[in-house]
Amino acid sequence: MTDQTINTMTENDRPTKAALIKGFRCRCPKCGEGKLLRGYLKVNDSCSNCGQELFHHRADDGPAYLTILLVGHLLAPALHLTYVQWRPEPLTMFLAFAIGCTALSLFLLPRFKGAVVAYQWARRMHGFEKA
Predict the structure, then answer these.
(1) Are 33 and 26 in contact (CB under 8 A)?
(2) Where do the DSSP E strands lie in 1-131?
(3) DSSP structure class, residue 129
(4) What per-residue confidence (pLDDT) applies to 40?
(5) DSSP helix/strand/coil, 38
(6) CA distance linking residue 110 with residue 114, whole number of Å
(7) Which helix (H) or strand (E) is 101 found in, with range?
């Protein structure tokens, strides 16, 4: 490979892992400084820091699916273990797990949305290939 080919590859390279980390932190996948979301789940049209256009994203139901998948896989075994080990009162157990499920879901949902948008940016999907 020539030096020009190597330079082109580096300029066009968008590291997925770094973008996912920035997205999970709800930051711009390109610069890591600007806010990715305004409000709770609304993606900004562009980054306030670097100007990267973000309106191309197609996150759709992906973040909700990932949130349900992770929360379910974490809390279902915890629910079983709690019941087998301590046998708390049903209302106590319901309240504890309802609050835990709601809190964990509300915490993870915007972070997964940021990660999905960042993944699309890193893989040049849905209009992100132009920038």
Answers:
(1) no
(2) 37-38, 42-43
(3) G
(4) 97
(5) strand
(6) 6
(7) helix 90-122
